[in-house]
Amino acid sequence: MERELYPMCAKCAKRICDPYNKIGTEPPSIKEAPAICSMRLKPDVIKKAVAEYEREDIKEFARLASLQEAECYEWVPSGVGDRLGIRTKFPRVEETIQFAHKMGYNKLGIAFCIGLGNEARILDRMLENRGFQVISVCCKVGRIDKEKIGVKREEMIGGPKGKLYYESMCNPITQAEILNSEGVDLAILLGLCVGHDSLFIRYCHVPMTVLAVKDRVFGHNPLAAIYLSSSPYYGRLMTQPPEKR
Predict the structure, then answer these.
(1) Residue 242, Cβ neighbours under 10 Å: how many?
(2) Spatial distance between the Cα atoms of 213 and 223, rounded to a whole number of angstroms
(3) Which one, of 119, 171, 164, lies nearest residue 143 by Cα?
(4) How far apart are CA 95 and CA 90, in angstroms?
(5) What's the sign of the alpha-carbon dihedral 221, 226, 231, 235?
(6) Greatest Cα-to-Cα distance within the chain, rounded to the nearest angstrom
(7) Residue 132: other Cβ atoms inside 10 A
(8) pLDDT by 10s per residue, the chain, length 245
(9) Cβ neighbours of 46 (radius 10 Å)
(10) This prediction's pTM
């Protein structure tokens, strides 16, 4: 039985798409790519997608994004002879501000989780201090009861005792539509839950970026679980469930 081939870039060890240390300006031949390479399996899709960069607005957006990427690094003396080493310069929030200025944006939108209300307040002040008009929308906007989407009281965060309390659903579609209606130049996601962020992205019709994602355990740094996947604490994430063993 032949193995089904589909793009598996995460398993690639050659990375001919990014020959960073190769001398010269020509990339390696596509023939050097493994059979699971997207470039070998999806040439027509890639050709169609790359054609989008010929649109002037998209090309300029991509150009400025690449300039922003490069400006986040700098070459400095390494301490070893005349060698230079590369180091990073800007945190993501500053990078977001710089890119928004490059694009000539004036009105920014923040869609935030109520659990990160203090972070949203600080971000709002940062952006205003840099000259932006800021529209911000909390995830509980509309104060819609979770029962509206079929969530039972005993299934809510409050659990069985929650029957005594009103619990508003997160409302990412409304967050997106409010920012759409305000005509923001750029929407910034701050800490929306898994699933809620997906709905926001689906309904947001303006350019958007993510400043932070929700991770209740690791202080909104989900990569910590990846880094700890070889440890006794989170090694369970690398094991298969019993029914698949």
Answers:
(1) 6
(2) 11
(3) 171
(4) 6
(5) positive
(6) 70
(7) 20
(8) 567 899 999 999 888 888 765 666 677 888 999 999 999 999 999 999 999 999 999 999 999 999 999 999 998 887 777 788 889 999 999 999 999 999 999 999 999 999 999 999 999 999 999 999 999 999 999 999 999 999 988 888 887 665 667 889 999 999 999 999 999 999 999 999 999 999 999 999 999 999 999 999 999 999 999 998 888 878 888 887 766 65
(9) 12
(10) 0.89
Q: Name residues whose C-beta falls within 8 Å of residue 184's C-beta, 6 or more positions apart in sequence.
A: 107, 108, 109, 135, 206
**Encoded amino acid at 204, one letter:** C
How many residues belong to the chain?
245
Residues 68 and 60: their CA atoms lie apart, in Å, by: 12
Burial label, 89 (beta-carbon count in 10 A; 0-12, 13-18, 19+) = exposed
The three-class DSSP label of residue 145 is: strand
- Amino acid (one-letter) located at 18: D
SS3 of 29-78: the string is CHHHCCCCCHHHHCHHHHHHHHHHHHCHHHHHHHHHHHHHHHHCEEEEEC
